[in-house]
């Protein structure tokens, strides 16, 4: 909520302009509380959003922090020519991390920057292509690119904390002819080999018959994920243990929803905060990988690995 390029901003929820005075903002908040309160016929979900919006912009310090950009421009720290991606450094954290390769969200960030500049127009200076006002005024397809890039980066930070027993590949190209055919992440560890899809639809989603559904869902993302994983598995001569769709916590009804087998592969849809739990314990029906087999699978993947 509020931290996605696809979601309504705190100002939208309060029905004021971003440059509204503090007094106007306070009056708008009180009005929205009366309009949305369940006891007066309002929507309880919107009532909660109004309160959350006030928490984000209700004080000068909070508002200043919110206006700086909601983290839209906070790319993970990495060296573009380095073999291993590393998240933003945390000096106090000395725990062993998973071995990580590739640039999470990199393809979509690059595509976003290209399209946002084309949309703004030739000769227009964009000192900050991640400015919240600019992002939220852009067409949906452009905002969606940035939302998914941020989602991939958030997942990368989580899987990096799994520990040295895991190897992770990000932004893996599955079809050299089409850069959009890719796996956001591949995670290999004792619980198995998993293909991950990191998404942010900007709205709650549900599942039906092994697929995601919702007003913002286009196509068949789970079926596409499974087919892409199976194709890469054939190229590397390995078998994926399962597939996991990672969504913002606010957009899923339950933290972990296991869908059973979809086209022969166990699939789970999880909220972001539950991802580490799922990857450590595995998905029901998924085959674990241990001992020498883990090293063999890693070697086979490295031999065919290409990045988007």
From TrEMBL:
The organism's place on the tree of life at top rank: Bacteria
Coiled coil: none
PANTHER family cross-referenced by the UniProt entry: DNAJ DOMAIN (PROKARYOTIC HEAT SHOCK PROTEIN)-RELATED, J DOMAIN-CONTAINING PROTEIN
Organism in which the protein naturally occurs: Microbacterium marinum
SUPFAM superfamilies in UniProt: Chaperone J-domain
Positions of region (Disordered): 77-103
Protein name as annotated: J domain-containing protein
Residue stretches making up the J domain: 9-70
Entries under InterPro entries matching the protein: Diphthamide-biosynth_chaperone, DnaJ_domain, J_dom_sf
């Amino acid at each position: 909520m509020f931290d996605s390029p696809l979601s309504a901003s705190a100002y939208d929820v309060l029905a004021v302009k971003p440059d509204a005075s503090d007094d106007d903002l306070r009056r708008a908040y009180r009005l929205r509380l009366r309009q949305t309160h369940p006891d007066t016929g309002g929507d309880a979900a919107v009532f909660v959003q109004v309160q959350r919006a006030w928490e984000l912009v209700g004080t000068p310090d909070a508002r200043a922090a919110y206006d700086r950009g909601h983290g839209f421009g906070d790319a993970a720290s990495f060296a573009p020519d380095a073999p291993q991606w590393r998240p933003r450094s945390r000096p106090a954290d000395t725990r062993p991390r998973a071995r990580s390769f590739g640039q999470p969200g990199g393809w979509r960030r690059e595509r976003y920057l290209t399209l946002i500049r084309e949309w703004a127009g030739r000769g227009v200076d964009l000192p900050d292509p991640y400015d919240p006002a600019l992002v939220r005024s852009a067409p949906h397809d452009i905002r969606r690119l940035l939302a998914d890039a941020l989602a991939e980066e958030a997942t990368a930070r989580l899987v990096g904390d799994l520990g040295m027993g895991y190897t992770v590949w990000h932004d893996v190209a599955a079809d050299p002819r089409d850069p959009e055919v890719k796996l956001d992440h591949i995670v290999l560890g004792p619980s198995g080999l998993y293909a991950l899809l990191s998404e942010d639809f900007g709205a709650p989603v549900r599942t039906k018959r092994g697929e995601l559904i919702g007003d913002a869902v286009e196509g068949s993302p789970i079926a596409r994920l499974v087919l892409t994983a199976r194709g890469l598995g054939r190229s590397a001569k390995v078998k994926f243990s399962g597939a996991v769709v990672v969504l913002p916590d606010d957009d899923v009804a339950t933290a972990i929803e296991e869908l059973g087998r979809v086209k022969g592969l166990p699939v789970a849809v999880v909220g972001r905060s539950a991802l580490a739990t799922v990857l450590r314990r595995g998905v029901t029906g998924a085959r674990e990988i241990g001992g020498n087999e883990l090293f063999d699978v890693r070697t086979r993947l490295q031999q065919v690995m290409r990045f988007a």
